[in-house]
Design goal:
5-stranded mixed beta sheet, Nuclear Transport Factor 2, Chain: A
Length: 150
């Protein structure tokens, strides 16, 4: 049986990077819960496909790289980097041609060689800031006494 991290890597490479949505059906159980907080999509396999399709429509050159992962027999956790050029509508924002580069993480439970439950987090605020839809944070946290380091 393949390692948990290899299943997640195959999903990222095939679905997110190449747009092969059929691989979601191959690698994710039909009854699997797929959690992607903040996207307003169903928490199931169909919602995962919609998320991938929406991201690829907005960022056709989308490329995700798993930067670091932890692999256990039935679990995989990975930090990932998402890169792309904003060339299609994204969360109500028209294309800007701007590049984005954001971090996220994926955590998956594996059962019988397929994902039985997964969590996917992508830094949406940073994406929106990078396309100019949301202003960057203001102020200087270094001078803020609550956030100042000793």
């Amino acid at each position: 049986m393949p390692a948990a991290s290899s299943i997640v890597r195959q999903l990222v490479e095939q679905a997110f990077n190449l747009g092969n949505l059929a691989v979601v059906d191959e690698l994710v159980l039909l009854e699997a819960a797929s959690h992607a907080p903040g996207w307003g999509l169903p928490a199931n396999r169909l919602g995962l496909k919609q998320l991938v399709a929406n991201l690829r429509a907005a960022f056709p050159d989308l490329h995700c790289t798993l930067a670091d992962d932890i692999d256990r027999e039935t679990r995989s956790a990975a930090l990932w980097m998402l890169r792309g050029t904003h060339q299609g509508p994204f969360l109500g924002n028209m294309p800007t041609g701007r590049q984005v580069e954001v971090l996220g993480f994926v955590f998956a439970h594996i059962k019988n060689g397929r994902i039985s439950e997964g969590w996917l987090l992508i830094d949406q605020i940073s994406m929106l800031q990078q396309i100019g839809a949301v202003p960057p944070p203001s102020g200087n946290f270094a001078k803020d006494p609550i956030h100042r380091r000793p």
